[in-house]
Amino acid sequence: MKTARKAGHFTNPGASGRLRAKERECWLVFYILTAALASALVLLFFWLRERSWHRRQAAIRALLDGADDLEAQLQECRQQMQRLRGMLAILPEEMSADADSALSADGKVQAALKDLLGHRLWIKQHAADADLGELATARAALAQSSSTLAAQIERLTAIAVDLERAQSSAQSVGPKRGP
Fold first, then answer.
1. What is the percent of the chain where pLDDT is above 70?
2. What is the tens place of the pLDDT at every residue in 38-92?
3. Alpha carbons 141 and 113: distance in angstroms, whole number
4. What are the residue boundaries of the structural domains of the chain, listed by start?
5. Separation of alpha carbons 79 and 128, rounded Å
6. Model-level pTM greater than 0.85?
């Protein structure tokens, strides 16, 4: 190996080449790590965006499912009211007058269906732009309406049981016979 003397120091000409190679290796590792970090950040960004999109889609789907459930409950309520009105026809008028007026709430059911149509229109027009909080608020309003209606349907079921009992007792008594 040749050595040269420069300014009072001995230097090895091969050592300078090895230092440059090591320096290139360090830069290569730096570039690879930088590229890996940039790739990880890009992947994280897209993952967070995809996750947000899935949450939005799930919220919209839950809102639409809630609207469908409420509509089904309203239709069930309407059918039960019609069935109960048919049961009232058998009872004497004095026994069924109050119940008949209570069961003639078809207008209320119709108004609720129109309100539900308004909710569906809002979903169509604003769901894509609404934030998750607004979607959650709309979903909570539908859930509240649904639970209120479920209580009403339970009440109608209880009324049906009472009417069935009244019908059976009215039929067992039958008309009075003369002497």
1. 76
2. 999 999 999 999 999 999 999 999 999 999 999 999 888 888 888 887 777 766 6
3. 14
4. 4-173
5. 35
6. no
